[in-house]
Design goal:
Layout lengths: L2 H6 L2 H7 L4 H12 L2 H22 L9 H9 L4
């Protein structure tokens, strides 16, 4: 599985949501374990998903739906 296929088919997102077939999952895991940059992308996507879940559970996600607030949030030092 190459990077272009992974990007074109949303494999990282599908992997994190558990919707890949068993064969796709195995091929993807082999691909990212052999590619440090791809592994970094997977970890970054996972952190983003977790951060969004945390915001949602804290009731702050709804506050950030306004475009100006998103820009302020991403401009904060923590991000």
């Amino acid at each position: 599985m190459d990077r272009q296929y992974i990007r074109d088919h949303g494999v990282i997102e599908r992997y994190l949501s558990g919707t890949l077939t068993a064969d796709e999952e195995q091929a993807f895991e082999e691909a990212y374990l052999g590619d440090p940059e791809l592994l970094d992308e997977v970890q970054a996507a996972e952190r983003l998903r977790e951060g969004i879940k945390d915001l949602d559970s804290a009731g702050r996600l709804q506050q950030l739906r306004a475009p100006a607030q998103w820009r302020q949030w991403f401009a904060s030092p923590q991000y």
